[in-house]
């Protein structure tokens, strides 16, 4: 009798365990990815509709009241909504998304002649670049080639890098180059492949090589800004303008570095860039301050961790880069990278980060940090977080 009772208790315990484990079963990633792309398309159509009567406006973030804040074509973030719309059109083949993608892309055309910014890769390649990839429209192609020439005009052969900012921060630096600039090289690689002119690719490779030489610390974290002496061509200063401290690891800077070197490896197949990307990934993935949900604090060395703000944009950029990088490495490393990107996509797709339809100024993700030391864009939606989130979902879908 006692035995029978024990058996019953054991049975009930096992049954309860089974129920719990079924309840906690993770949603299949392909289901999650498709649902999130559908929800993102609904939200992005609302965003596009909200600015349809303001033909010079592009979304940037939200204000203190949570209302949409817009910007103009010359802002480095101008190409991200058009890019989101192209990606979502690629997924859904929806005519309204196509019309909106064309509309918002056309708003940026004048920037092809802008020689005052290094951000032409972000602005033009996310918008016209995706548009050209999906439509083959030669008008887009010519705009991109003009833009690449404008970007190349900022290259100084004595220094071997493209200049990032023209403002000099009260004479603080002579020739600032920021880690973010790695992202703009993709437009140059594309321009050489498309035009047959090797100049753009040579500039990109020189920029990447000098960045490896001068931007990284021994642990493969990156400074944000390296300024060069214009006479000697050597680094004169290394600082972290948008991070916590000059010697700290600003999260989005590490994300740009990881994505940038993964992309340069794709374009060159030179193993030194793959090695660099792996080392950056190693720094990020094994950092003791990377939270369990794998969405970084805005700076890996923020003094108020674990209460520091998260940066969803850095999480989305890292996820996208890791998915691509997983295709270039051995099986076990690939699994590590994909496992982390999966956790990031699950986190960003949860109610903690993913906004309900019609809220959040019609941006897709919440909780990014633009420039905390400047007290600007802290814990807000940012249009580039949305872009790299959608890109990661599509990359994951296409694995
Ligand atoms: N490229 C500027 C930033 O990441 O904030």
Verbal overview:
This protein is mostly helical. The protein has a domain at about 50-145. It is built from 13 helices and nine strands. It has helices at about 1-25, 30-50, 80-90, 95-105, 120-135, 140-150, 185-195, 200-215, 250-270, 270-285, 310-325, 330-350, 385-395; strands at about 60, 70, 155, 160, 175-180, 225-230, 235-240, 370, 375-380. It has a three-stranded antiparallel beta sheet, with no helix packed on it. The protein binds glycine (GLY).
**Bulk shape:** globular
Number of strands: 9
Strand order of the largest sheet: 5-6-7
Note poorly predicted spans: 9-17
* SSE series: HHEEHHHHEEEHHEEHHHHEEH
Helicity level, as a percent range? 40-55%
Bound molecules: glycine
Query: Average pLDDT, to the nearest integer?
Result: 95
Strand composition percent: 5-15%
Q: What count of helical segments does DSSP give?
A: 13
Q: Over all CA atoms, what is the radius of gyration?
A: 22 Å
| Distance between the amino and carboxyl termini | 57 Å
Described by strand count, sense and barrel closure, the largest sheet is: 3 strands, antiparallel
Q: Helix/strand-derived class? A: mainly alpha
